[in-house]
Amino acid sequence: MTTEKTDQAVWRYGIISRLLHPNEEDATLQNELTRLSSRSFRKPDGRTVTFSPETLRKWLYRYRHGGLPALEDSPRKNLGSHNSVPKKLEDRLFELRGEHPRWTLARLLSQLINEKLWDMVNPSRATLYRFAATANLHRDPHLETDPPARAFAHQDFGQLWTADFLHGPKIRVNGQKRKTYLHAIIDDATRHVVHAGFFLAEDTEVMMRELMAAVKIHGKPIRFYTDNGACYASHHLKFVCATLGIHLIHTPPGKPRGRGKVERFFRRVRDQFLDGETPVAHTLDAINTALQKWLSLYHKSVHSSLGVSPLQQRLSRPSACKMLPEAIDIEPLFRMKRRCRVYLNSTIRIKKCSYEVIDALPGERVDVWFMPRDTSQVWYGPEMKPAKPVDRHQNAQKTRS
Predict the structure, then answer these.
(1) Residues paired with 386 in a beta bridge
(2) pTM for the full model?
(3) Do 216 and 273 fall within a single domain?
(4) Checking DSSP bridges between strand 161-173 and strand 176-187, what pairing results, if any?
């Protein structure tokens, strides 16, 4: 026996060994098989699997008749041959593959059913799949439906901003370990980090806060490039970008092309700023403070693909960002919207905080707006009236009076 087969046989023996020497107090064989089938077992390669009672029963009988070698997986005697596939069926499969190189194998088999060449029984579907693998009849992986991605770089700052999230280290918050995320927005032309920060949750509010701060500082870019994450595909972000005149672009699902620059930045963060799973600090504020210090060094260091530092590149290139007039307040565009129920005491709850909505009727639902990561002020109703935080002590004074 080879070492791999021996390890597999010994591993299977360890599972069924209890069944080989039952005690009088043990349950029936069927009950023991059912109990074992409800457990999970870790394979030598690390995967966790479960087995049906019938599989465990076969292993038991095989060991009783042939010992440990019987628990090996013996190779199929007809491996590599497909005598059960009729010649007429083989020829038609080759013809269909030549006519339709992009069809999946399942679609080819469906065509055979439509042409009444295959009854879905003989040969079996598994046999046809093995025959297709041997005869190289699977869909050609070299045929591309999309043109290959090409390297690109914009000329001016603000022509394209790319955003993404990075999984960060864990820190303790109120005695519990919480995972952090790094959200970064990077300019394509200069590799200048427009905005970056660690947060405890990856959600729409984080990204909206970062984008709002970046637009306030640098102005609005021409294009905003993201993946298809839930925070980037939200209707709120689409509304904000459409209102500001920013062209929101998403990478095709399953094809993360075009985001190599922000991924390369994240790799640099991993290699130079983060130290594996050990956080550079033990609080969120301390991590972000350390990140800003590191970013100041990053902007001044020479970038290999630019030949100069991101700061030099930023200062040498014109900006395509459109600065917003100071009179324009963009904060209302970034307000998050929720629909809340009005309680019997004429209050609503947002993020575990209560607010009084005097003009709303108890039991109805009202639209509520609030700023990302800031619930100090809340607005409600079609007129967007400010909701007053509940002051229980002041209400107690009113009740006594």
Answers:
(1) 379
(2) 0.57
(3) yes
(4) antiparallel
